What does this fold into?
Amino acid sequence: MAGQELIRETASAIVGKLNKGEVTPLDLLDVLEKRIAEVDGKVNALPTLCFDRARRHATELMKKPAGQRGLLAGMPLPIKDLFNVKGVLNTQGSPIFKDAISEWSDIFVEHLEGNGGVVYAKSNTPEFGAGANTFNEVFGATLNPWDISRSAAGSSGGAAVALATGMAWLAHGTDMGGSLRNPASFCGIVGLRPSIGRVAHTLSATIDRNLTVHGPMARNVEDLALLLDAMSGEYPADPLSLPAPSTTFLSAARSGRKPKRIAYSPDLGITPVDPEVAAVTRKAAQRFAELGVIVEEAHPDLREAHECFQVLRAFDFAMTKEKLLRTRRDLLKPEVIWNIEEGLKLTVEQIARAEAQRVEMTARTVEFFRSYDLLLAPATIVPPFPIENRYVAECAGKKFDNYVEWLAIVYAITLACCPALSLPCGFTASGLPVGLQMVAAPRGEAQLLAGAKMLEDVLGVRGTTPIDPRAPK
It folds into this structure.
């Protein structure tokens, strides 16, 4: 197949071709290298390439018979530039680590490569993943391909843009306060925050550090499920990791399992929302009614989300970045400094209160899902904003107190320990993508993917990517 035709194929179709021997991993790397040369200079999504390493890995993989190379069968994918890939630059978006070469690979990278994944690039991210706009002092800003004057969100912005522009079929992301859901929404692709423990990770700071999880990003729900299957599984070095389910997530996505009753909320009761975003997402949620699903406006009680997240996020920054504040403060961006300092001010009482709030919100949310199969809401509260804005300072007349408060609609779901994805559901009047956040009960990825695939089919938005980068209108 010609390169351009391959770029537009789904990941599931590509894996099928790999297993049949119709294409090789080396063929795919050639196609990607050419596409990146054509496109990435306009959007800056994949600043670090490692094609020599990828070709060595692909060559070794091809010594195994087709069909015996793991779930991904030689599928190339990029890794977010916060994590270690042995022998590859890992800047974490920080001048402190601008020359750091990883001496080892993180657990999830080992797992993906063992399952037939081939790493060929690192995707751009904000410094230490802090903030939902992908820019840093090492590589600069990643631009939204739907309008290159706009933000791609963050912190998995490079991954989302690579998918949207055909520089990747699948991509790795992470999510704390919407770090893969926000870019998915802004770029018109799909991103999933899985349940805690679904994807094994390298331990750091604490055994149960779980605000951040690794997750799959793709152009459609089936491809997302395929990558989740490849990422999932128990790993001895992560004692909290979950075994892979007996039925694959790809099978679940294709099952046609229909939810009986879903809830939609424009704001989860905790945040302002741009009226156009609310209208687009509400209209998309109502499409479930065409399938005979009961759709009601409701949400769990998440009133403590702001206080709880600010405390637990700050505590996480203090645990992991305090040494950098002492030794390299001059090279940290202001938002990171603020978060670390806020964490260092915390008392034991504040941390205990936040942990108790999280327990209560999770319990109420689990109870909520006794009545509803899925919860739907906007994935972001605004359309893609101008790239020069470091973050969203206000929405619908409400000014935010800090650079993360505008992310409440996603970080509330993080706190409740639920799997959640962003599904493309429509466009603003100016042609910018809008994402619908779809949420299930903890460990409910199978139900979530089945519902998302069903709605994706009804909405007809699948197939709008990949695109070539577009100048402002």
